[in-house]
Specification:
By secondary structure, the chain is an alpha/beta fold. The chain folds into two domains: 228 residues, Spore Coat Polysaccharide Biosynthesis Protein SpsA, Chain A; 69 residues. The chain contains eleven helices and seven strands. It has a seven-stranded mixed β-sheet, with helices on both faces. Strand 2, helix 3 and strand 3 form a beta-alpha-beta unit. Helix 6 runs parallel beside helix 9 and helix 10 packs antiparallel against helix 11. The protein starts with a helix and ends in a 14-residue tail after the last helix. It binds uridine-5'-diphosphate (UDP) and magnesium ion (MG). The site of magnesium ion has 5 residues, from loops.
């Protein structure tokens, strides 16, 4: 007799996995990564594919990938014409994937393929996004770990989606949450946030983390600036994509109001107190606030045009349907 949990398990194992690894100068890591992935995935009795995206590597990565793909049909390789960055490479892998569950993982073995089954347990429990948390992170203490823990707090506060480690590449997504998600810049770390805003169920589990043994990290401190700017963009796009004039125009009107108030004040000082207009900085302030205000309102109008092009050229809608009944 099959119990309902057996049937559930059978259903779950029917979900195909797409493992996606962006690769930039990882020639020594590629064979090792494949070995570890293979050791974890093969016994699981699920359908799977391993998509390796060569992001314009300058070393022997492509040759290593070709060798692997020759021997293993489940390894699919995409070679990008030039280096486009980790997020873009990941996006490319997602675009070419066919699995029901998407699992990005770094190629440098800092993430451990042995954690994949733990992520899947949570997916099988019904979560849409399972994010890895590098509890015991093996990167430079101050330059990486400290900076990133501050960044994690900020992102958590601003986004209202509370994870402890946004930057961990190892995550698992149900394909449905990635539909329509386009990633730019450093945005791959914000996908759980975005998904959660759209109503996805997300959770976080501790995963192992290892020091990099071969090759070197492609990132330094400059990434912090990019991440902060991307966070502003994500936040802005979420709240105001449909009506940017409310943000630009709101700021513009405030600035124009300040301009009028400073002008009135200057006139008051001149007419009542007898202070000449050139004796205070107020007229200058008023003129500047006026210019800034008008410019902001014009920028808002410009953004409205852009937003219309965005929605209408791609046939996008300003709402997201979860379900339709009797339709
Ligand atoms: N990566 C990439 N393109 C790049 C930089 C990095 O595809 O321009 C890949 C890299 O090969 C690795 C992952 O992205 O698989 C994470 O990169 P890295 O280990 O340098 O980042 P860190 O672990 O230091 O944050
Ligand atoms: Mg790394």
């Amino acid at each position: 007799m099959t119990t309902s949990t057996d049937m559930q398990a059978a259903q779950h194992s029917a979900l195909k996995l797409s493992i996606i690894t962006p690769i930039y100068n990882e020639e020594e890591n590629i064979p090792l990564l494949f070995e570890r992935l293979d050791a974890v995935l093969r016994p699981m009795k699920r359908g799977y594919e391993i998509i390796m995206v060569n992001d314009g590597s300058r070393d022997g990565s492509l040759a290593a990938l070709r060798r692997l793909a020759e021997q293993h049909p489940e390894v699919k390789v995409i070679d990008l014409k030039r280096n486009s960055g980790q997020t873009a490479a990941l996006m490319c892998g997602i675009d070419h994937s066919t699995g029901d569950i998407i699992i990005p993982i770094d190629a440098d073995l800092q993430n451990d393929p042995a954690d994949i089954p733990n992520l899947l347990v949570k997916i099988d429990e019904g979560y849409d996004v399972v994010s890895g948390w590098r509890r015991d992170r093996k990167d430079a203490a101050i330059r990486r770990n400290f900076v990133s823990s501050v960044a994690n707090l900020v992102i958590s506060r601003i986004s209202g989606v509370h994870l402890r480690d946004y930057g961990c590449s190892l995550k698992a997504y149900r394909r449905s949450v990635l539909e329509g998600v386009r990633l730019y810049g450093e945005m791959h770390r914000f996908v759980p946030i975005y998904a959660s805003w759209m109503g996805a169920k997300i959770t976080e589990i501790p995963v192992r983390h290892h020091p990099r043994l071969h090759g070197k990290s492609s990132y330094g401190l400059e990434r912090v600036v990019k991440v902060i700017l991307d966070l502003i963009v994500v936040k802005f796009l979420d709240r105001h994509l449909v009506k940017p004039i409310y943000v630009f125009g709101g700021f513009g009107m405030l600035s124009v109001a300040i301009s009028f108030l400073t002008l009135l004040w200057a006139l008051y000082l001149k007419l009542v107190e007898g202070l000449s207009l050139i004796q205070t900085p107020l007229p200058l302030l008023s003129a500047m606030a006026f210019l800034i205000g008008i410019t902001a309102i014009l920028l808002g109008l410009m953004s409205e045009i852009l937003v219309r092009t965005y929605f209408e050229s791609q046939d996008k809608r300003p709402y997201y349907v979860r379900e339709r009944i009797n339709l």
